[in-house]
Amino acid sequence: MTTTQTITLEQIIDRYAKPVAFVADKDEAPATEIGEFIDQLYAVSAALDLVRMDTDDVDAAATYLADARTSTGNEQQVLLAKAEQHLASAWDLLDEYAQMV
Which run of H or E residues covers position 65? Predict the structure, then answer.
């Protein structure tokens, strides 16, 4: 029998808030709640777009997180897992952007 690890909104925020806040606005504090984190992801998407970097993973993560905060149970876990995958895929872009500024 396989067990699936539960992902929470808080874990995603804890894992990604610092790099997301830096790219969103280097003077902005890391998000501590999901609405603020999603807003910062939209700002990250705009910043990446300005320098012609791919925004697909950041946009998808924001969408999945927005949907996850209003869902529960298995549906929420699927959405959070998808958001986590997209944020992990965007990690290198966030790092690359941070090194450019």
Answer: helix 56-68
